[in-house]
Design brief:
The chain has 2 helices and 23 strands. The protein has about 350 residues and is mostly beta strands. The protein has helices at about 275-280, 320-325; strands spanning about 5, 30, 45-55, 60-65, 70-80, 85-90, 95, 105-115, 120-125, 130-140, 145, 155-160, 170-175, 185-190, 200-205, 215-220, 225, 230-240, 245-255, 260-265, 285-295, 300-305, 310-315. The strands form 5 sheets. Strands 1, 16, 17, 18, 19 and 20 form a 6-stranded antiparallel sheet that branches. It has a 5-stranded mixed sheet with strand order 7-11-10-9-8, with no helix packed on it. A 4-stranded antiparallel sheet has the order 2-23-22-21. Helix content is about 5%, strand content about 45%. It starts with 5 loop residues before the first strand and ends in a 14-residue tail after the last helix.
Length: about 350
């Protein structure tokens, strides 16, 4: 039994591999990584930074795929075991809430969460060819309804919480620019209806005393509700003489007011070290986008994009991640505040 309470459905058939001997750290990589390699379909030359949920007796995914033309699109994928994936070669077809075609010019880095009987999808979408947060939903992974864009440009890394908090939906995001964004903090916004967003708050800033998260940060998988707070896995970026390096860390946010940070890791949880993370279309990237968990025993499988080319899995225990986050925490000025100023 986990030491801490986890409020979530348990995924008993999630992928899992026991911790290898002589492994350091709270996360360890799946020995079969990368689970998705180059050119999995005719029009998907690279699949990475993707999201998934349990569905029926298997899993459904919304996957980022880069095309031979250079376009970035969202594709549907299915799996029985969370490791071997059947990716549709055609992009997801969207309609607006009146049933009219509403296809994004591009889409990338999706997240996926179930609330009630509806699956909500967030992604970086085009607003007049400028990036902002797109949002849509499906009930059956057959028809997909796209809502109006959540924000004006420029914004990325939209991540919904898995339930309402104090009566409102809550969305994490990272304001950005039209390029590769050499800055970025995590913000949170509220909405009564997933259409009108306000009460914007700053959640977390970059940390100049922790190099891996000194340039920019962004939310990763859907936050996990625990007795110690919302567990948020996030990415952090360092600018080196060899370019950007994307690593992952963890933070605990206040349950009732998640704009307040309780703890955040000064050390990273995982950083690019193996070939499929350090060599690829974009080198040195470990970008978390989704997680499966078993609330009964505390296991977690984190899915992440590797080198903007592959998909990998890292395993761990939520108890150990929480303990590591608490014992290796360093808050930045303002993190513990409500972030209104």
């Amino acid at each position: 039994m986990p030491k801490y309470t986890i409020t979530a459905e348990s995924t008993k058939n999630m992928p899992w591999e026991s911790r290898p001997e002589k492994t350091h750290g709270v996360l360890w990589r799946y020995s079969g990584n990368p689970i998705i390699k180059r050119n999995p379909t005719e029009h998907c030359v690279r699949v990475f930074n993707s999201a998934l949920v349990p569905y029926g007796d298997g899993f459904m995914g919304v996957f980022r795929a880069d095309h031979p033309s250079g376009g970035m699109r969202i594709h549907l994928a299915r799996s029985k075991n969370g490791i071997d994936w059947d990716i549709e070669d055609e992009v997801i077809k969207w309609t607006d809430e009146n049933g009219k075609p509403f296809q994004p010019q591009y889409g990338y880095d999706p997240r996926l969460v179930k609330m009630g009987d509806t699956y909500f999808i967030m992604w970086c979408t085009s607003f007049d060819w400028q990036p902002t947060i797109g949002m849509g939903y499906t009930k059956d992974f057959k028809t997909f309804t796209r809502k109006e864009n959540a924000f004006l440009p420029f914004n990325r890394n939209g991540v919904l919480f898995p339930r309402k908090i104090n009566g409102n939906y809550m969305l994490l995001s990272r304001p950005s620019d039209n390029g590769h964004t050499p800055f970025g903090d995590i913000f949170i916004s509220e909405s009564p209806d997933l259409t009108y967003w306000g009460k914007h708050r700053k959640v977390m800033k970059t940390n100049s005393q922790s190099s891996w998260q000194s340039l920019k940060i962004g939310a990763g998988p859907i936050p996990i509700e625990t007795s110690e707070g919302w567990l948020m896995i996030y990415h952090g970026v360092n600018l080196t003489c060899n370019g950007y390096v994307y690593s992952m860390g963890a933070a605990l946010l206040d349950i009732e007011n998640p704009s307040k940070v309780l703890y955040r890791t000064r050390p990273y949880l995982l950083t690019p070290e193996v070939d499929y993370e350090t060599i690829g279309y974009v080198q040195n990237v470990a970008f978390p986008c989704a997680a499966l968990l078993d609330a009964d025993d505390g296991r977690i499988a984190i899915y992440y994009g590797a080198a903007d080319t592959y998909v990998g899995i890292a395993f761990g225990y939520i108890d150990e991640i929480i303990d590591f986050t608490k014992s290796n925490s360093q808050l930045v000025a303002g993190d513990a505040d409500i972030g209104r100023d």
